[in-house]
Amino acid sequence: MHDAYVYFEDEDVTFNDISSLSKHVDEGLDGYRDYLIKYSDRELVQFFENAQLKRQYGEETEAVKRDKDEIEKPSIFALLPAYALSEIKSAFKIGFYLYLPFVVVDLVVSSVLLALGMMMMSPVTISTPIKLVLFVALDGWTLLSKGLILQYMDIAT
């Protein structure tokens, strides 16, 4: 983002002139655009780029087909929602991977309690300590932190 600020200061970008602003978005945000391209789902980028072209040109016209073939550098307005949805998708995956073992523990504990004839005992009283022991024994915080940080590790380089 520092590059965008330097470009903003050097090129004297004005918000009143649409061509100046468009040039700033295209040239001043190259580092940010590269980051978004790297961490966005390619299918989502293509979807938003196609939606933007259809909105701009109307239905499938020759200009839309030509622009689809010539897309080397996707628009920042296609990259931003694609990146946001990619991150949301990753968050749901992480949540599912965290939730699944705990559901399995709940199912096993409730099945064992029913098999022993202990229907009146709450499975939560047995399964919660088991979940905590499982999380601590597998070093859950370290695994979770590493998984979150390592996906962005090459940003610093």
TrEMBL record:
The chain crosses the membrane at residues 96-120, 126-144. It is found in: Cell membrane. InterPro entries: T3SS_IM_P. It comes from the Bacteria. Belongs to the FliP/MopC/SpaP family. GO terms for biological process: protein secretion. Keywords: Cell membrane, Membrane, Transmembrane, Transmembrane helix. The keyword Cell membrane applies. It is a multi-pass membrane protein. This is Virulence associated secretory protein. The lineage of its organism: Bacteria, Pseudomonadati, Pseudomonadota, Gammaproteobacteria, Enterobacterales. GO terms for cellular component: plasma membrane. Its main location: membrane.
